[in-house]
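Encode chain A's predicted structure.
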Amino acid sequence: MRVAVVDDQPLIRAGFSMVLAGQDDIEVVGEAENGRQALDLLDTVDADVVIMDVRMPVMDGIQATERLMRRDDPPGVLVLTTFDDDEDAFAALRAGAGGFLLKNAPADQVVHAIRVLAAGESVVAPRITRLLLDRVSDRLAPANGQPERLGLLTARERDVLGLVARGLSNAEIAAELYVAEATVKTHLGNLMAKLHLRDRAQAVVFAYESGLVRPSS
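Encoded structure for chain A:
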C-alpha cells in the first residue's frame, strides 16, 4: 500500500513516515507540507491513501481533498483532526475524505485505518460520524439541491439511509426492517450509486444535509 503524508509540521510527517516504514505492506511514497504540494506530489507518484492534515498554509486539507476527489480513481483520504475541529472534520467528510482520526491516535490505529481505506472502506464508524454531525449540523446550512436528490430514492432506500445515519450496522438495519442482511446491502449499494456517494461516511453526511435526519436532542 502506497501512502503519502501531508502535514505542515515536519516532526509529525517524520513520525508518521517512521511508523509506516516499519510495516511490511506499506510504502511511504512522499511527503508534502501543504495541500498544493500534495496535489503536485500526487501528479508524479501514485498513492492508495493520503494522510491529510486540515489546517495548513497555502492550501488546506479540505481544499486539497476536494480537488483529489475530482480525479479519476482518487486515493483514499484519511484526515487528521481533533474533536475541537468538528466543523473541519464535517467539511472534510463532505469533500470526500474516507474518514478521520484524532491527531494523537495510537500508531496501530493509524496503520489499521490506512489498511481499511486502501481496501476501499470507510474508516470512521457510523456511530462516531453521527455523533460528530449531531454536534455541528445545527450550525451548517443544508447543501443546495440535496433535499431534491432524495426523490431519486425509493421509500425503502430512504429507510435504509435513515438507519445508516442513526449509526446502525447492516445487521441491525436488517433486524429493524425485518429483511435479510443481503437485501440491506443491495439497497445500500443502490442508493449510494444513485447519489454518487463513495462510502457510509458520505451517506451519513448526505442524510443530514438533505434533512432526512435531524440532530439528536
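The mean pLDDT is 84.
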